[in-house]
Write a structure and sequence with these properties.
Blueprint: E1 6-10, H1 15-26, E2 30-35, H2 38-48, E3 54-58, H3 64-77, E4 83-86, H4 100-127, E5 132-136, H5 143-150, H6 155-174, E6 181-185, H7 203-214, E7 225-227, E8 230-231
Parallel strand pairs: 1-2, 1-4, 2-3, 4-5, 5-6, 6-7
Antiparallel strand pairs: 7-8
Length: 234
Amino acid sequence: MSDKRVAFITGATKGLGFEIARQLGQKGITVVIGGRGDKGTAAAEKLKAEGIDAHAVTLEVTNAADVAALPGYFETNFGRLDILVNNAGIGPDFSAPPSLALFRETYETNLFGLYAVTDALLPLLKKSPAGRIVNHSSILGSIANAAAGHASPSPAYNSSKAALNMLTVYWAQQLKDTKIKVNSAHPGWVKTDLGGSGAMLEIPDGATTAVDLALLPDDGPTGGYFHKGKTLPW
């Protein structure tokens, strides 16, 4: 097994996920991009051109076969996994009326897929000298923020992120006697396809919270909800 740390970022073919992979790779970490088909390979090749040790694995988080293949992929190719960034997700559709179909689609990716990927990879992460799990959340998932009157008209997305935050706390408690740290990250309002051109943050800035949580020292926090080092209200 190599001494070099290995990070897996889901939904990393573009936007924040790709930038998280880039920033981790720039710090000497082997990065694996999870994405659909040729898009993942193309993204990894782009990072390789920048001198980053990058790889790709086919992953649709709602595809049970893709998820089941992940542990074998990491065991065979690297013998380890140290960092998992759960970035894949469906964004809010503010123009769509709430419907059961929308809730199901959103939860399948933002919650059930995230749970399946993490559950599959936990045995490998437990073997890491310093396992880190970062769940990409959103301030829209803060119940306290919503109760203060700051909720957006996107209940499927918002509640999926609130549920994601609950999983963060659950895993942090379940893993408190291990070396794994589990935290939720709010990237901010970022100029991605989701955030739009009017967003406040450039993509490199939006990636920093997840990157910092992925690289926490041994005395760093676990079971928290953060944006740029500041704790957010649940």
